[in-house]
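Narrative of activities, Objective 1.

The group set out to show that a structural description can be obtained from nothing but a protein's sequence at a throughput compatible with the screening campaign. Below is one input-output pair from the validation batch, recorded exactly as produced.
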Amino acid sequence: MKKYRQYLLGLMLAACACALSCEDDYESNADKPGLELTIPGQNIKIAGYGQYRSQAQEGDEAVVAVKLPSDVRSLTITKSVNLAADTDYGTKGVLTVDASALSSGGEYTFRYRGREEDIDQLIGFAFRAETASGDVMRSDLTLAVAAAPRINLSRRKWMFTSKIWVNKANKEDILECEKDNYYLFHADGLMDSFYGSNHDGGCELEEFNDYDAWELSEDETTFKMKYHGIFTPDVFTTDTYRVKTLTVDKLELEIHIDLSWAGESNDEVFIYKYVAAPK
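Output recorded for this entry:
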């Protein structure tokens, strides 16, 4: 999926560059900033006259400083999605910045918050500034919006694919009958567990635990799951995991378990691995 997204974005960027080259000589002026755009801590200038590129995570705000020319008279920002005008933005795709927000030779702060519908789309912003003398300066910003792993947890079902027993030289310990198990982490903090149809070979009792809720810490380092036994519905247990990996496609959780009752140590370490799948 990741390679496909990169390939799609590459095709879109190539198409965008081709379309823009009809208006300006982007080869000979490749290093010219056009209407200069900056984002603190990022180098967003790319080859091509007035061409810039950045990325943002869904829910995060991209904050761009637009350096205005002296005696600036107007500034418009046109938004496109996959090279087509986004008519829901501004007025039929064009946002005209209020003159009171413009200062000659100063900066205008452009803000845009990535949305779910922007993910894996080619989001473009064309900036056009005109001076009192009629001169025009342009720049184009391409913004790639990525899904936020935290938010994405509730959009997928999470297939249980691996259980590594770290103390046993990283032995794969998942049972064949566990491989059809999956979990749903709902946006409201509740969760559901599904154990598939195969319960033979060590999974005869797996349906005795019913999962109720989940919680991911603010810093995304700790993951908790609360469950109860079907015969003790008022008795809840919370397992606490350390998050080893959290992406839009993978979730890997580490837990320490006391197995001294089974002849093992009181600190056996397991890593549970889950892969995202469509709901």
